[in-house]
User: What shape does this take?
Amino acid sequence: MSILEVKNVSIRYITGDFKDIGLKEYVMRRLKGNYHVTEFWADKDVSFTLEHGEMLGIIGANGAGKSTLLKAVSGIMVPTEGRIRREGSIAALLELASGFDGELTVKENAYLRGAMLGYTRKFMDEKYDEIIAFAELKDFEDRPFKQLSSGMKSRLAFSIACLVKPDILILDEVLSVGDGAFKKKSEAKMREVIGGGATTILVSHSLKQVREMCTKILWLHKGRQIEFGTDVQGICDRYEAFLGGKLEL
Amino acid sequence: MFQTLKSYQFLFEELVKRDFKKKYKRTVLGMAWSVLSPLLHLLVMRLVFTRFFGRTTPHYTTFLFCGNLVFSFFSESTNQGMTALTGNADIFTKVNVPKYLFLFSKNVQCLINFGLTLCVFLVFCALDHITFTWRFVLLLYPIACLVLLNLGLGLILSALFVLQPPGAAPVSDQSRLCHHQIFPRDRY
Assistant: This one.
């Protein structure tokens, strides 16, 4: 029984009149027949399955629809067509710095972010010192969050996020974050999390990481699924050839 | 639905705390403001209605306070609830949490405010020599109904408000219409 099954999923964004006008304008235009929207298909007919403990690497150029697909898999968006079946808890790290509030202190923000990731209060109380130590922010605990530098913010976000232990883990380009020495620490920690047996979906532009760690690859281009399979090295080679202009799609 | 609410309890508490702290962060008086503000409203309205319009109903201040209390709970709840979705957009587009949690946390914050002013109101009642009977407990039923009304309207308005173009006036025409339909002015 596969832990994640995505079947013929298509996700559509509606642009145009839909959001730029207010409710009154919407009703007026609907009545007059003056209502125009364009459809943008971010993903069209994507299918794949994942077994327990596998690691899927999603590669593709910018705008290929990777992040949108991840949002659908994690349940933030509902696919316009198709079906997604998941078993177990999901933790999606789509953007590390989301949910932080500039006015609150570092400690309050850490608890808030932890709550969003699904931790319990007891867990946060126990692990709080560990988090602050890993992020090297001991002196800044009671400062308002907006006073931290961007590097500090990403370090805090990362150290909260790396304690997550779900059944399905989704990482959207978050493997190497922060400055210099922290980058090494964070990469090692993430590998530990991945090695802990969770089924992982990784989106990365670093093909080296993808080649080393993934067991399956999904290649997307402009919303369409180009390739999916267990031939990691083969697909990555073809992708590199495509990027270098040697392969036509 | 209650199952999901229970599992998100920590997040819910944190959201309520966050809203509370943000509201009073920059003010000098802090929490005292939510007590002082209705009292000041009351003072102004009493002056206007007794001196300028000459109404002489007995216990007028308490009467005014009563209506003001309920209306400001409704108004604050729906106004804040309206922006619950758009204000927290950067959270629920990136993390999978049920969206109605944000509305509920705003409503809980308004309910706490309401509780505070209700205590002040009871003090007013005592000062105005209104006898406390056991019937005061029956007040809980209309309060519960009002909370449900706030939640329902908040859910509708916050979803509609997403369609508003950014930069529109915070109190939109829709919510003002709702207020006037539900609480007609001739109550005073």
